[in-house]
Design a protein that fits this description.
45% strand, elongated, four-stranded antiparallel sheet, 2 helices, mainly beta, Neuraminidase, Immunoglobulin-like
C-alpha cells in the first residue's frame, strides 16, 4: 500500500498573575491577559500585607502566593479569585520572599533570609498542601549569600537564587542541587542588585533583573560575556519566560526614586528575547508596585495563543496569515503545536506504517478531520454523505497537558485499497472566540 500526506486548513485562557504591593496600602493579586486586556483584581488583602512571590500550578489551576506581612503565610486561590486557602505558615522572624513550584514533583519552594548580616538564609520546600516542610538549602550568613528570588530547574536538578544584597554594588546569582549541595563553581555577578531570574534550558542561558540599572540581562550558564536584553526600566523585580514564544515578562515596581520612569515603571511588561516588541501590559494605579508574576500559557483558543506569540501590533497575526512564510498558516501552527514566527518550526504530519500521525491540541475549540483518497481527486471522511467508515484512530497517546499524538489509519471502507493518500483538515469557529 502506497502512502502520501497532504495538509490543508481553514479557517479562562492564557493569563499573567501578579502581586501588587503599594507602599502603605492594601496588597492585591491581579490577573491580566497576555495582550494587556481584561485586567482583573482577584484578591485585595486587608490588614498589613506584604505580598511577594507568586507561582501558578498548572495541574490544579491554582495560584500560590506569599504574604510576608502580618499574616506570614503562603496561600492559594483559583484563577477567578475564589477558593482562597491557607497553605502553610512561614517563618515569623525571617524575610520570606519568592515562591516557585516543581510541577512534576508536586513541591512548593520558597526563600527565607535574615534581614541582619549575621543570620543564615534558607530555601525551603513542602508538599502543595503545606505538609512535609523541609529545608533544601542553607546558605552562609550574610546578604551576599542569602536567597531573595529563586528559580527551579528540576530537569537539570538545580535551584538558583539571587542574593539579597545591600547597597548598590555588584551582587550575585548562585545555585545548588535539589538535594541542597551548593555548587561552589557557579557564580554570575550582576552590576548592582539582583532580583528575579529564569533559565532558558534550550539555549543554556540565564535571564535576570538588575534593579538599580533598570535592565534585564542574560548570560550563558557556562560563562562568557553578559548580554543586554532591554534597558531604561525603573526597578524590575519579578521575571518569567515564555520559551515557546520567545518572550520575557517582568514586573517593574517603579519604586526607585531616581532613574527613568518612561517605560515599564509600576507595570507588567514584556518583550522578545532580543529586546524587540516592548509592550506595557498592566494598567497600574498611581501607587502600584508589582513585585512578582507567574504565567499561565495554556491556550484553549486561537485568540489566547495569538496573544502569546504576537505583540498587539504584530502584522500577519490572523488565523489564515503565514507570519513566518513557512507555507503553514498560523491556525495550522496552533493546531499542530509549532511556532508561528520561526520558519524552522514547521507543522508536521508524518507517515507511520500505512497511517498518518499528527499532534492534536486537547480541549481546543478546533475541528480536526482526517480525509483519505485513492486518487488525489475524490476525498472521503467519516461523516460524509456516504455514511462509510473511512478512517479510524488507531492510537491516541498523551504528549503533555495540551497535546495528544494521534495515529489515524484506514477504516473498513478502504481495507482493500492498494494506495491511500491522507490529508488533515483543521477548522475553528468563524465567530470570534473571545
Amino acid at each position: 500500500m502506497g502512502l502520501a500526506l497532504l495538509a490543508a486548513t481553514r479557517s479562562q485562557g492564557a493569563r499573567i498573575y501578579f502581586t501588587d504591593q503599594p507602599a502603605d496600602a492594601a496588597g492585591s493579586v491581579i490577573s491580566v491577559a497576555l495582550d494587556g486586556s481584561a485586567q482583573t483584581n482577584l484578591l485585595t488583602i486587608a490588614g498589613a500585607p506584604d505580598v511577594r512571590g507568586i507561582a501558578f500550578h498548572h495541574a490544579s489551576g491554582r495560584i500560590y502566593f506569599l504574604d510576608n506581612g502580618t499574616a506570614k503565610r503562603i496561600y492559594s486561590l483559583l484563577p477567578d479569585g475564589s477558593g482562597l486557602q491557607e497553605v502553610l505558615p512561614v517563618s515569623p522572624t525571617l524575610l520570606d520572599s519568592d515562591v516557585e513550584i516543581d510541577e512534576a514533583a508536586g513541591k512548593l519552594y520558597w526563600a527565607e533570609n535574615n534581614p541582619t548580616s549575621t543570620g543564615n538564609g534558607f530555601i525551603q520546600r513542602a508538599n502543595l498542601d503545606g505538609s512535609g516542610v523541609e529545608p533544601v538549602v542553607t546558605t552562609a550568613p550574610g546578604t551576599t549569600t542569602a536567597p531573595y528570588f529563586i528559580f527551579l530547574d528540576p530537569p537539570a536538578g538545580y535551584v538558583y537564587w539571587g542574593v539579597v544584597s545591600s547597597g548598590n554594588g555588584p551582587s550575585s546569582y548562585r545555585r545548588a542541587t535539589l538535594t541542597g549541595v551548593v555548587d561552589t563553581n557557579f557564580l554570575i555577578t550582576t552590576p548592582t542588585r539582583t532580583r528575579d531570574l529564569a533559565i532558558d534550558p534550550t539555549a543554556d542561558t540565564m535571564y535576570w533583573c538588575d534593579r538599580q540599572l533598570g535592565m534585564i540581562l542574560k548570560r550563558a550558564l557556562s560563562g562568557g560575556a553578559i548580554g543586554l536584553v532591554i534597558t531604561n526600566l525603573n526597578a524590575p523585580h519579578g521575571l518569567a519566560l515564555d520559551l515557546e514564544a520567545g518572550k520575557v515578562y517582568w514586573a517593574d515596581t517603579g519604586a526607585r526614586g531616581s532613574g527613568p520612569f518612561n517605560t515599564s515603571a509600576r507595570r507588567i511588561a514584556r518583550c522578545n528575547f532580543d529586546g524587540t516588541e516592548y509592550e506595557n501590559l498592566s494598567s497600574p494605579a498611581a501607587n502600584s508596585e508589582p513585585w512578582d508574576l507567574a504565567l499561565d500559557t495554556r491556550s484553549p483558543t486561537y485568540d489566547d495563543w495569538r496573544t502569546r506569540f504576537f505583540s498587539t501590533n504584530s502584522p500577519a497575526a490572523a488565523a489564515l496569515d503565514d507570519a513566518d512564510n513557512d507555507g503553514a498558516p498560523n491556525l495550522l501552527e496552533y493546531a499542530l503545536g509549532s511556532q508561528p514566527r520561526r520558519a524552522a518550526s514547521v507543522p508536521r504530519i508524518v507517515a507511520e506504517g500505512t497511517g498518518m500521525r499528527f499532534s492534536r491540541r486537547t480541549g481546543a475549540n478546533l475541528t480536526y478531520r482526517a480525509e483519505v483518497s485513492t486518487d488525489l481527486t475524490t476525498w472521503h471522511y467519516n461523516g460524509d454523505p456516504s455514511g462509510l467508515v473511512w478512517t479510524v484512530e488507531a492510537t491516541v497517546t498523551p504528549l503533555n497537558s495540551e497535546f495528544d499524538s494521534v495515529l489515524v489509519s484506514v477504516g473498513p471502507a478502504l481495507a482493500e485499497a492498494m494506495q491511500v493518500f491522507y490529508r488533515l483538515y483543521v477548522s475553528k469557529p468563524l465567530i470570534p472566540e473571545n
